[in-house]
Amino acid sequence: MAKKNSNPNLDPNAFRDSLASVREDGKRIWVYPKKVKGFFYRYRTYFSWILLVILFVGPFIKIDGRPYMLFNIFERKFIIFGAAFWPQDTHLLIFLLLIFFVFIILFTVVFGRVWCGWACPQTLFMEMVFRKIEYAIEGDANQQRALNEGPWTGQKIWKKSLKLSVFAFFSLLIGHLVMAYLIGIDQVKEIVTQPPTENMAGFIGLVAFSGIFMFVFAWFREQACIVVCPYGRLQGVLLDDNSINVMYDYVRGEPRAPIRKNQVDAAPKGDCVDCGLCVQVCPTGIDIRNGTQMECVNCTACIDACDEVMLKVERPTGLIRYASENSIKEGFQKLFTGRVKGYTVVLLVLVAAFVTLIATRSDLEATITRFPGMTYQARPDGKVSNLYNITLINKTFEPQSVEIASLIDGIEVEIVGDTNWVLEPQTKFEGRFFLVQEQEEVKIPQQKVHLVLSAEGEEFDDIETNFMAPVGGKN
Ligand code: SF4
Ligand code: SF4
Predict the structure, then answer these.
(1) To test the ligand 2 pocket, which listed residue (278, 280, 281, 311) has its Cβ within 8 A of the most ligand atoms?
(2) Among 99, 189, 201, 320, which one has the highest count of C-beta atoms within 10 angstroms of its own C-beta?
């Protein structure tokens, strides 16, 4: 994806035909982004600390002994901000996902890929953890390049082993963190403290996740954003000329030209001094001056690099900045476009529907169906009965004692088997019961019966079903 670059001085299509990190023969070009410093990098660093603390503390937060966040896709059990969602709540989760997607679309239409640069875990760990470790051990871009291209000396072996060991440690940490969100911190503690044979599946999960993270952060890196991430690929349809992105102000910057001493040149030049620093700091290896590109993760490194250059050459900062195509071309920024208003309405409708569903959701659920293939049973004691199946779901975290009663005089409930329906926390129960009536009291062949279900003395459901019996004992 690439938005059309309306910079009249550039071939608008030149950058579309290749990836900056892949050679023409398909081989990888290793990106060595130069260390960056500046306003945005500083605030991204602070923000990343906050996010890292939230991420790592998350699995330890419990409410009444239960996790605050759990995404157990294996057992289809989710706890989001303390609220439990069961497989029976799939419609709620679908709503939640829809809200999330519409929010992301709306956010992207207005603010471009701010998420990628500031909050995406891939960028967060890559740029704020692994990249920093790499700089600390191997040095800046040029030193890293020299080390990689140089012979295997004792120092190179030492630096590479140290870096990979530290990478492995952090990959293990992230692998365990992800597992804690999936199966809960207590389960992870159990897996870690027991021999692998005691919980082979959990152990394999931990090793697999840690291995994947090691692969991604030590080698795959920016390719995850460029090749794998579907969000990055959607930018082409999400962004428009009013979306705010990291952009190069080509109106101010072009024609670019280096500053030469004692240069006598009557032709006015743009503000870009063609130093290439914005390209050197880019973790995806692109040149932002070509326009908005799929590879740009809006990390702001080029903004900081260019601002530093502008200060040195005593020109105004912001040659690369957060801006929209229209704000550069036309000089004004329009935020509330028709598209934004449309998405906002859809988002509000979805949120309202979700809130209503949550507010009316019951913690206990009951389903009653007639026993298939049976109408009624005439009993020798002069009574007639109908058989029903009942399914009860306890979504709460406490045991629930459930009772059922008929609201129709003369029709009694007779439970089959154990009459004590006690549901353990977060369990499902399936049982059977009869509705029984004196034959001589049957007035109509099919009567509506209201059944009331209560737990711990409190009514939680009122279900209507049919009671069938021959009038006056006649078939
Ligand atoms: S172009 Fe700039 S904002 Fe985009 S990824 Fe490269 S350095 Fe980051
Ligand atoms: S850092 Fe700024 S001045 Fe240097 S090449 Fe990039 S846009 Fe031009």
Answers:
(1) 278
(2) 320
244 Cβ below 6 A of ligand 1: no
Amino acid at site 106: L
- Which residue has the CA at smallest separation from atom 4 of ligand 2? 275
Ligand 2, atom 1, lies closest to the CA of 306
Which ligand lies nearest the alpha carbon of 286? 1
- Ligand 1 atom nearest 278 alpha carbon: 7
Closest CA to 407 of 462, 466, 471: 462
What is the strand order of the sheet 458-468 is part of?
A: 421-423, 400-406, 446-455, 458-468
Q: Which two tokens stand for residue 79?
A: 């706890």
Handedness of CA 161, 165, 167, 171 (dihedral sign): positive
| Residue ranges in the chain whose pLDDT is less than 70 | 1-17, 261-268, 472-475
Please check whether residue 384 is in contact with residue 436, taking contact to mean a CB–CB distance below 8 angstroms: yes
Give the separation between CA 333 and CA 309, rounded to whole angstroms.
26
What tokens appear for 159 in the block?
Answer: 């630096």
Please state the pTM of the whole predicted model: 0.81
Nearby residues of 120 by Cβ (< 8 Å), 6 or more positions away: 297
